[in-house]
Design a protein that fits this description.
Number of strands: 2
Distance between the termini: 24 Å
Helix content: 40-55%
Strand content: 5-15%
Strand order of the largest sheet: 1-2
Largest sheet: 2 strands, antiparallel
Structural class: alpha+beta
Number of helices: 4
Radius of gyration: 13 Å
Length: 87
């Protein structure tokens, strides 16, 4: 089973996502030509439930940035980096 990333939001709600290195290729393909912000939101909209998104939608920009940083730091790769480009 693929390892998941878990993050507890300030309201106590826990979001679970695949780690960046486990995001399905189809999701990456759909976002490959998007800017950073559009890419991030498209990936989240593909991976999260409606309930998860409701909890994200009420975050401040700082809280959202903390979530994204924790997700990135909890993964082996970052957005825009593929396994082929890292070594």
């Amino acid at each position: 089973m693929l390892e998941k990333f878990h993050h507890t939001l300030p309201d106590g709600y826990e979001i679970e996502t695949p780690r960046f290195e486990n995001i399905p290729v189809g999701v990456i393909r759909k976002t490959r030509r998007l800017g950073d912000l559009d890419q991030a939101f498209t990936i989240l909209e593909e991976l999260l439930t409606a309930e998860d998104l409701e909890h994200l939608d009420v975050l401040s920009r700082e809280e959202f940035n903390d979530f994204v940083k924790a997700w990135r730091d909890g993964s082996a790769v970052t957005p825009g980096e593929s396994g082929a480009s890292s070594s």
